[in-house]
Design goal:
The structure holds two protein chains of two kinds. Chain A is an alpha+beta fold. Chain A has 17 helices and 17 strands. Chain A is elongated. Chain B contains 16 helices and eleven strands. An eleven-stranded mixed β-sheet of chain B has the order 1-3-2-4-6-5-10-11-9-7-8, sandwiched between helices. The radius of gyration of chain B is 22 Å and the shape is globular. The chains are: A alpha+beta, B alpha/beta. Chain A: It is an enzyme of class 6 (ligase).
Chain lengths: ~500, ~500
C-alpha cells in the first residue's frame, strides 16, 4: 500500500505560515507527492574486544588507553579477526530475517584523516557477511497498517578514532580508544515513505538488537548512528526517480524525524519552483528546523577499494548458523503473539514491556499465580515511571522479582494500601534490600481494618463539622472528600480509602 | 656449492658471533651493510638460550621489527627516529632457539628498489669485485658493484662473513636476486610458511621473510625454527594445513624418500623430474647466465633427475601484473606514515587551524619523509587503484595473477593443497607434471652502482625471473652456480605451493 506524503504533514510543517498551509489544503492546488527514504545504520557491537585487535572496546575509559599495535597503525602490526564479532553479526542478521553468507571477505577503503590511523578502514564492500532480511512494522509498533521494510545488506567494519574539536584552539585531539571497535553497517532498501516509518524502523531495530544482545544501540552514546537518504517524486512517477540527498549527523530520533520532514519539504519546494535537486550531503539544524549543505557530490572522495590482503575469507557453515539461531532468545514478534494469547494482555502493553531489556522475563516470573493484568499494569505505570524518573534501565535497578511479588501479594491481601505499596516500591528502587514483609513491619504499616474504630472516628468528625455534613446531605457530594481527608490524616494514611468512604457514607446517610 | 672469489674462499668454518662482530667492525664502513649493530659487550653480557641455533649471529633487515632503539627504520626518514615496541615473531623464534641478532641491515627504502641504493643510509657495496677491476686503485664509488636489492645488504653481510644467516624480505625477488649477485643461498619459502607479524608491509599479498645463508643446510636449520604457525598473522599457515601439505607431499610414491639413504649414492635424486621453462629464455639473458643454466641442468641429470622442457605461457604478463599489484599494495600499506601518531612530522607546514591545512600537513610530512622512488611508486599505486583506472589496471592484474597460479598448478605434478577441498587419495601412477623448475635468478651478474642504462625500466627488467614465483606464492631458492669475471651468478629452483622440503633437498645437491 503506497502512502503518499500527507498534505497535512506538509501543512503541519508550515503551521507558522497559515497562508501557505491553507493553500496546500485547498483542493485546487493539491498535488500528491511521495517520498522515498532509505537508512544506513552504524551499530557498535557489544563485544568485549575490538574487531581486529585484542584491545578492550570499552568506550568510556581514559583517552588512548585501549590501543593495540594495529589500532595505532604501527609498522609490522597485523589485524586478527575477533570471532565474537562474527557471532554478534550473525545474531543481528538472523533476528532481521536475513541470510548469513557462507563466504564473506574484507576490503580496504582508503582516505586520509586524523581519525583513520591506517589511512584506510577495513570494511566489507563486495562480499558482506549478511544479505537480505526485513523489519515489519504494524499496529504493535504504532502504525495502523502493515509495512515491510527490506534490508539490503549487513557488513562488518571498523569504527574510526574519535576526533575532539574545540578543546585547544587550533588543534584536533584524537582518541584512539574507539579506533577499530567493531561496527555493523546495516543498509535498508529505500522502502520507507514517511518520517514516521523511518523513526519506527529505527526504534524497532533498537529493540531487536538490544533484545538479542548485539548492541546497546543508543543514539546518545554513539552506539547507534543513523544516516538517511531522501528523495521525492510526483504521485504518478516512479518511486526511485528523484535525486536523493544524504542526511548525516542525526543524533536522536527526534532529529531524524525533523530532518526528514524538513528535507522533503525543501525538495518539494525546489521542484515546484522549477529547480532541480542536486545530489548533496546535508546536515540538520534543529534551531532553524532546516537541512543545511555539508558536502556536494563533486567533492566526494574516491575510496580506492582494494581486497584486504592480510585477512583470509570468512567461511561459515550451515551448522554454525543453526547453532547461533538456536541460541537466540524468543524474538519480539513471537513474544507478542504468545503473551497476548497466554496472559490476555493488550498488544500495546506487551510492546512497551518488550522495549525494556529483561522486562518480559521479570513479568513472567512475577505473573506466576497472580493476575497478569494487574502485574502488567504495575510494571508499565509504576515501575516504568520510577525508572524514567531515575533515568535507569530495569536491569540496572535494585528492585528484585521477590520484592515485587511480595509487594503485590501484600496489596492483594489488603495488608497494605495502594499508597503504601507505592512507597514500598520507591524504597526497593532506592536500594533497600529487605523483603516486602520486613519493610511493612519495620514501618509499622498495618492497614487499619478495624471498622469499629473508623465508625467512632467518623461519628466524632461529623459531630465536629455539622455545617459540612449538612452541605453533603443537601446534595454537595464533594464534601465527602473533606471528611475522608480528615480521617486519613487522623489515621496517618493507614486506613484504606475505600473503607473510609464507605463508613462515612453510612454515617452520613444514617443521620 | 661455489663460494666466491679468492678473497673469501678461506672462510669455510661457520661464523661465530664474536668473529661476526670483528668482521663488521673491519668491513662495514666500506661496504655500508649494517645500519646499526650491537657491541661485543652485549654478547658477553646476555646468555643466549640453548637451541639448534645457539650462538648463531643473525643479521635482520631493517624492515623486520626488533626492539633495539631506532632499529626498525626501513631506511626511511619516516621511521628512523622510531623504536618498535614489539618484536617480529620470527625474531622471537630465532632468539628462543639461541641465535644472536648482531644488527639491522641497510636496505632500499621500505623495500622499494632493486639495487640497495634508495635508502637514507646510502648505497651498499657488493663484497665481490670483478677480477678485471681488482687491481684498479682509482675506483670511484659508482664503479663498485651493487649487491642487489632490496635485501642486498643482508646478502652482502652473509657473503662477507659478518653473520651466519640473514633475514630479508622477498616481495618480487628481493632476497633471491641479491643472493645470486653476492654468491650466497637465498630462500623464499612458500607464502604463509613464516609469520609476517613484525614485517613492515610493502606488498602484503606478496611479502615473504626470506633466509640468506652460505649453504642450504643452514637455510634448513633456520627454516625449521622459523616456519611455525602464528595466531598473530591470519595469513600464516595453520598447523592443519601444514599437516595436510606434508601428507600430500609424502604420498608421492615416485619420489624415493631421502631419509636413511646415504648421500654418496650415485643417483640421490632419482625419480625427480625437473622442468626447464622455455619462456625464461629471453633476449636479455647474458651468455654467462645461459651457460650456468645449462651447467645446472647437466648436474641435475647426472644426479639422476629427468630434465624436460615445459611451457609457462603467461610468463611475459607477470612483470606488468606484479608491478601493478605491488605498487597498489605499497600505496595502501604506506598510507599510515603520516607523522601523526609516531615518526617525524613536518615543521614547515602552515598552522592546522582548518581541515584544508591539515591535509597540507599530511602532504608536507609525507613529501619530506619519503624518498623519490617511494613517492613515485605511491603515486602510481594510487593511480592504478583509482576509480578511473582500477578496472583497466588493478582488476586485470589480479586476473593475470590467478592465471599464472593456475598455470603453475598444471605444470607441477603435486596438487596445490589450497585448491583441494576433498580428502586426498594418493595417485596410483605417476601423474604428468614436474616436481621442480630450474631457471636463472637474474639475467646476468651484478651491475655497477653507476649504471643507469636505459633508465629505471632496466632496473625493473632484473625482476622478470623472480616475479612469477612471488605472484603464485610458491617456494623458490637461489643457489650460487657459476661466475663471470669473478662475479657470482645464481640459479633458481621453484616447486609447488608448500613443497619446501623437496626444494631444499634438490638445492642441497646442486
Amino acid at each position: 500500500m503506497r502512502v503518499l506524503w500527507s498534505v497535512r504533514a506538509s501543512a503541519r510543517h508550515y503551521a507558522n505560515n497559515t497562508f501557505i498551509a491553507n493553500v496546500l489544503l485547498h483542493k485546487r492546488y493539491y498535488k500528491p507527492w511521495g517520498a522515498t527514504i532509505g537508512l544506513e545504520l552504524h551499530v557498535q557491537l557489544a563485544a568485549a574486544q575490538k574487531l581486529f585487535s585484542a584491545a578492550s572496546a570499552k568506550w568510556d575509559d581514559p583517552p588512548n588507553t585501549n590501543v593495540d599495535f594495529i589500532d595505532a597503525g604501527l609498522p609490522g602490526s597485523m589485524p586478527r579477526l575477533n570471532p565474537e564479532c562474527v557471532s554478534l553479526a550473525a545474531r543481528a542478521i538472523l533476528c532481521l530475517n536475513g541470510q548469513v553468507q557462507p563466504r564473506s571477505s574484507f576490503d580496504r577503503k582508503h582516505y586520509f584523516y586524523s581519525d583513520q590511523p591506517l589511512g584506510y578502514q577495513i570494511t566489507q564492500q563486495r562480499h558482506p557477511i549478511g544479505r537480505g532480511g526485513f523489519i515489519e512494522l504494524s499496529q504493535a509498533d504504532g502504525i495502523d497498517y502493515t509495512k515491510r521494510v527490506r534490508i539490503h545488506q549487513l557488513q562488518l567494519e571498523q569504527d574510526t578514532a574519535k576526533s575532539v574539536h574545540g578543546v585547544y584552539p587550533g588543534y584536533i585531539l584524537t582518541d584512539l580508544n574507539r579506533a577499530g571497535v567493531a561496527l555493523v553497517e546495516i543498509v535498508s532498501e529505500p522502502d520507507m515513505e514517511t518520517a514516521t516509518e523511518a523513526v519506527y524502523f529505527v526504534r524497532k531495530m533498537q529493540t531487536l538488537l538490544r533484545h538479542t544482545g548485539v548492541s546497546s544501540c543508543n543514539m546518545e552514546d554513539g552506539s547507534l548512528r543513523c544516516d538517511v537518504n531522501v528523495s521525492v517524486y510526483r504521485g504518478d512517477e516512479d518511486r526511485l526517480s528523484g535525486t536523493r540527498c544524504e542526511l548525516k549527523n542525526l543524533n536522536s530520533l527526534k532529529t531524524i524525524r525533523g530532518a526528514i520532514e524538513a528535507e522533503v519539504s525543501r525538495q518539494i519546494e525546489l521542484i515546484s519552483a522549477g529547480h532541480r535537486v542536486k545530489q548533496e550531503t546535508r546536515g540538520f539544524d534543529a534551531h532553524s528546523g532546516k537541512t543545511v549543505l555539508a558536502r556536494s557530490k563533486e567533492t566526494a572522495p574516491d575510496y580506492r577499494y582494494m581486497p584486504e590482503p592480510d585477512l583470509p575469507a570468512v567461511h561459515i557453515s550451515k551448522d554454525w548458523v543453526e547453532h547461533i539461531r538456536s541460541s537466540l532468545p524468543e524474538l519480539p514478534e513471537a513474544t507478542l503473539s504468545r503473551m497476548t494469547r497466554q496472559y490476555g494482555l493488550l498488544p500495546e502493553d506487551v510492546t512497551t514491556m518488550l522495549g525494556e531489556p529483561g522486562c518480559i522475563t521479570f513479568f513472567e516470573l512475577a505473573a506466576k499465580g497472580r493476575d497478569p493484568k494487574r502485574v502488567a499494569a504495575w510494571i508499565t505505570s509504576e515501575i516504568f515511571g520510577q525508572l524514567s524518573y531515575r533515568a535507569q534501565r530495569l536491569n540496572d535497578s535494585t528492585l528484585t522479582v521477590q520484592q515485587f511479588t511480595g509487594l503485590l501479594d501484600a496489596l492483594a491481601s489488603n495488608a497494605v494500601t495502594s499508597g503504601q505499596a507505592k512507597l514500598l516500591l520507591i524504597e526497593f528502587m532506592d536500594g533497600d534490600k529487605r523483603t516486602a514483609d520486613e519493610l511493612i513491619q519495620a514501618r509499622g504499616w498495618e492497614v487499619m481494618s478495624d471498622l469499629g474504630r473508623l465508625q467512632d472516628l467518623a461519628t466524632q468528625l461529623l459531630g465536629k463539622h455539622p455545617k459540612e455534613a449538612a452541605e453533603y446531605k443537601a446534595g454537595h457530594k464533594r464534601r465527602l472528600n473533606f471528611f475522608v481527608a480528615k480521617i486519613m490524616a487522623a489515621t496517618k494514611g493507614q486506613a484504606r480509602p475505600q473503607d473510609v468512604s464507605r463508613v462515612l457514607k453510612e454515617c452520613l446517610d444514617e443521620k | 656449492a661455489y663460494v666466491g672469489s679468492r678473497q673469501y674462499r678461506s672462510i669455510s668454518a661457520p661464523v661465530t658471533a664474536i668473529s661476526a662482530l670483528e668482521t663488521i667492525a673491519k668491513r662495514n664502513p666500506a661496504l655500508n651493510t649494517f645500519a646499526s649493530h650491537i657491541t661485543p659487550a652485549k654478547i658477553g653480557s646476555s646468555e643466549s638460550s640453548d637451541g639448534p641455533l645457539k650462538d648463531w649471529p643473525i643479521a635482520v633487515k631493517a624492515n623486520i621489527a626488533t626492539t633495539l632503539p631506532s632499529a626498525t627504520s626501513c631506511a626511511s626518514r619516516a621511521l628512523d627516529a622510531c623504536t618498535s615496541p614489539f618484536q617480529a615473531t620470527i625474531v622471537d623464534s630465532l632468539e628462543g632457539a639461541g641465535a644472536v641478532v648482531v644488527g639491522k641491515t641497510n636496505m632500499d627504502e621500505f623495500g622499494i628498489g632493486s639495487k640497495s641504493m634508495f635508502g637514507i643510509y646510502g648505497a651498499a657495496i657488493n663484497p665481490y669485485t670483478p677480477s678485471s677491476d681488482v687491481r684498479r686503485k682509482d675506483m670511484a664509488e659508482s664503479d663498485y658493484r651493487t649487491p642487489g636489492g632490496d635485501s642486498g645488504e643482508s646478502a652482502a653481510a652473509v657473503a662477507a662473513g659478518m653473520c651466519r644467516a640473514a633475514l630479508g624480505s622477498d616481495t618480487g625477488g628481493s632476497v633471491r636476486l641479491p643472493a645470486a649477485w653476492c654468491g650466497v643461498v637465498g630462500s623464499k619459502p612458500t607464502f604463509g610458511r613464516i609469520s609476517r607479524h613484525g614485517l613492515v608491509a610493502h606488498g602484503s599479498s606478496l611479502d615473504i621473510i626470506g633466509i640468506i645463508t652460505r649453504n642450504v643446510a643452514d637455510v634448513q636449520s633456520v627454516f625449521s625454527v622459523a616456519a611455525v604457525p602464528d595466531p598473530l598473522d591470519m595469513t600464516c599457515m595453520s598447523s592443519s594445513l601444514r599437516a595436510r601439505i606434508k601428507a600430500l607431499a609424502d604420498s608421492r610414491s615416485w619420489i624415493t624418500q631421502v631419509r636413511g639413504r646415504s648421500e654418496t649414492e650415485s643417483a640421490p635424486l632419482a625419480g625427480i623430474r625437473v622442468g626447464i621453462p622455455e619462456e625464461y629464455w629471453v633476449n636479455e639473458l647474458s651468455v654467462s647466465a645461459l651457460e650456468s643454466w645449462k651447467a645446472g641442468a647437466s648436474r641435475l641429470t647426472a644426479l639422476g633427475c629427468d630434465v624436460v622442457s615445459v611451457s609457462l605461457s603467461h610468463t611475459p604478463s607477470a612483470l606488468p601484473a606484479y608491478y601493478t599489484l605491488a605498487w597498489a599494495e605499497a600505496s595502501s600499506n604506506l598510507a599510515r606514515y603520516d607523522g601523526i601518531r609516531y615518526g617525524r612530522r613536518s615543521t614547515t607546514s602552515p598552522d592546522t587551524r582548518d581541515l584544508q591545512n591539515a591535509s597540507q600537513k599530511y602532504a608536507n610530512t609525507r613529501s619530506e619523509n619519503f624518498g623519490a622512488e617511494v613517492q613515485r611508486r605511491i603515486l602510481l599505486g594510487t593511480y592504478v587503484m583509482s576509480s578511473a583506472a582500477s578496472e583497466h589496471y588493478f582488476t586485470p592484474s589480479q586476473k593475470i595473477r590467478r592465471l599464472i597460479q593456475e598455470e603453475f598448478d598444471r605444470v607441477f605434478a603435486l596438487p596445490n593443497a589450497l585448491s583441494m577441498t576433498n580428502p586426498l587419495t594418493p595417485p596410483t601412477s605417476r601423474p604428468p607434471g614436474v616436481d621442480v623448475l630450474l631457471f636463472p635468478t637474474a639475467t646476468g651478474a651484478a651491475p655497477r652502482l653507476g649504471d643507469q642504462e636505459d633508465s629505471r625500466v632496466a632496473n625493473y627488467v632484473n625482476d622478470m625471473m623472480t616475479v612469477p614465483a612471488s605472484l603464485a606464492g610458491i617456494p623458490a631458492i637461489s643457489i650460487p652456480v657459476g661466475h663471470t669475471d669473478g662475479m657470482p651468478l645464481g640459479l633458481q629452483l621453484a616447486a609447488q605451493y608448500g613443497d619446501d622440503e623437496l626444494l631444499f633437498r634438490v638445492a642441497r645437491h646442486l
